[in-house]
Amino acid sequence: MSKKILVVAGDGIGPEIVAEAMKVLQALQADGSIDVSIEDALIGGAAYDAVGDPLPAETLEAAKASDAVLLGAVGGPKWEPLHISKRPEKGLLGMRAGLGLFANLRPAILYPQLADASTLKADVVSGLDIMIVRELTGGIYFGQPRGVETLPSGERKGVNTLVYTESEVERICRVAFDIAMKRGKKVCSVDKANVLECTEMWREVAVKTAADYPEIDLSHMYVDNAAMQLVRAPKQFDVMVTTNMFGDILSDCAAMLTGSIGMLPSASLNADGQGMYEPIHGSAPDIAGKGVANPLATILSVAMMLRYSLDAPAAADRIEKAVSQVLDQGLRTADIMSEGMRQVGTAEMGDAVVAALS
Ligand code: IPM
Ligand code: MG
């Protein structure tokens, strides 16, 4: 049965990298490997410019009616002066909340061909394969009360609140444990239990939930130490599970271990397996429109989409192999360029992946 994909390209380099991912989808469609129908919709600054809202109601409705959403990126300096409720990022957060995408999977895998592109020594990162499982619809990103108020003294007070219920912690831990069962069976739960009561509870729930997974080796780490360990000895980690904000920060850190944030895909899933797929990098306004952005994170996000939401694991494998093959051929976008390799632009990289598919 045909599956529905909603494409929301967004801002900055979003449209350029999504165009390359579309070539890959269309090639798989053309050779009969997948059966999908594709629609597109507005999000982020592009949606604000067109209709005055970073997440138009039609976009969220179309997303709800799809099996999966492919997102490019949102945001840019042009929209920074707007009130926070109208900024492009609200479009992204509204999608996450509106679709209930509580489980964010951010794999950090080092392609052996790129060991020299990392700022860390090759022996520290070679063979790296970490899965960060970030809680995505709770925590300080969504907790109430929030906002800035003016006190009687005239001074302003800003508030954001870290909130988790036990059930929110339990379900994200289960996702992490289920994933770990298919990998190295090791989960590190990252918290700040020495200071924040909410995450002390997080730790207790993680321990309690792990009782259902006797084969899982569960450990705990404070977030400051986890940041340090990620750059000191990252290969000690298999699966990491953590709160929305800690996951935001640690996943950027893990991304750089792999050489470039331009390589990393992500999946955001809800309880029904419906998902939104996006590169973990942002809209990179400084290079937008120049045709130099790395489309591989978006192309790899399509692979995750085929695997997690569209039940097409063989097609997903083919994409991942094709990416590895173009790296073997020595093709590099500027962000992963190194001596002796051939530098290519966004479209040439996308075309090379399509060629390597067959
Ligand atoms: C991410 C991004 C987003 C986040 C921004 C763009 C709202 O940094 O997906 O990691 O903070 O979650
Ligand atoms: Mg982030």
UniProtKB/TrEMBL annotation:
Pathway: Amino-acid biosynthesis; L-leucine biosynthesis; L-leucine from 3-methyl-2-oxobutanoate: step 3/4. It is found in: Cytoplasm. InterPro entries: IsoCit/isopropylmalate_DH_CS (IPR019818), IsoPropMal-DH-like_dom (IPR024084), Isopropylmalate_DH (IPR004429). Residues 4-353 form the Isopropylmalate dehydrogenase-like domain. It holds the Pfam family Iso_dh. Its cofactor is Mg(2+); Mn(2+). It catalyses: (2R,3S)-3-isopropylmalate + NAD(+) = 4-methyl-2-oxopentanoate + CO2 + NADH. NAD(+) binds at residues 76-89, 282-294. It is an enzyme of class 1 (oxidoreductase). Mg(2+) binds at D224, D248, D252. PANTHER family: 3-ISOPROPYLMALATE DEHYDROGENASE. NCBIfam families: leuB. This is 3-isopropylmalate dehydrogenase.
